[in-house]
Amino acid sequence: MRRTCAPPHCGGSSRRQPGWTPTWLGSSLRQSARLLHNFSQTATALRDRHALRSGLSDHEAAAAIWALAHPQVYRSLVLDLDWSVGAYREWLANTLRATLF
After folding, report:
1. Does residue 56 register a pLDDT over 80?
2. 8 Å CB contact between 13 and 7
3. Which end of the chain has the least Cβ crowding within 10 Å, N or C?
């Protein structure tokens, strides 16, 4: 049986005020923004070494790295779908290579 909850326990309408963000969501957004910033620096370093694929912007490269290397992808593939860590690492390396270089 699926559990549901009523406001205000689930962040329902009684708490939806302009500028209000659930604590866990704000934390997750900050972490994602930090990751994207770090991956932007990685993309710039790759560009400086002339390693990025022609036609791929630093912004696109950073977004690709973020989407593929995001911790939620690891959790989904390894923890939820029972991939081995080795299979995940191999997939990630191959996919990043095919996407960026």
Report:
1. yes
2. yes
3. N
Averaged confidence pLDDT in the chain? 83
pTM: 0.71
Task: State how many domains the chain has.
Answer: 1
In single-letter form, the type of residue at position 30 comes to: R
Which residue's entry shows tokens 């790759």? 46
Q: What is the 3-state secondary structure (H, E, C) of 34-79?
A: HHHHHHHHHHHHHHHCCCCCCCCCHHHHHHHHHHHHCHHHHHHHHH
Q: How many residues does the chain have?
A: 101
Q: Judge whether 47 lies within some domain.
A: yes
Q: Is residue 54 part of a domain?
A: yes
In Å, how far are 63, 77, 88 from 43, measured between CA atoms?
A: 9, 24, 21
The structure tokens 């302009």 sit at: 18
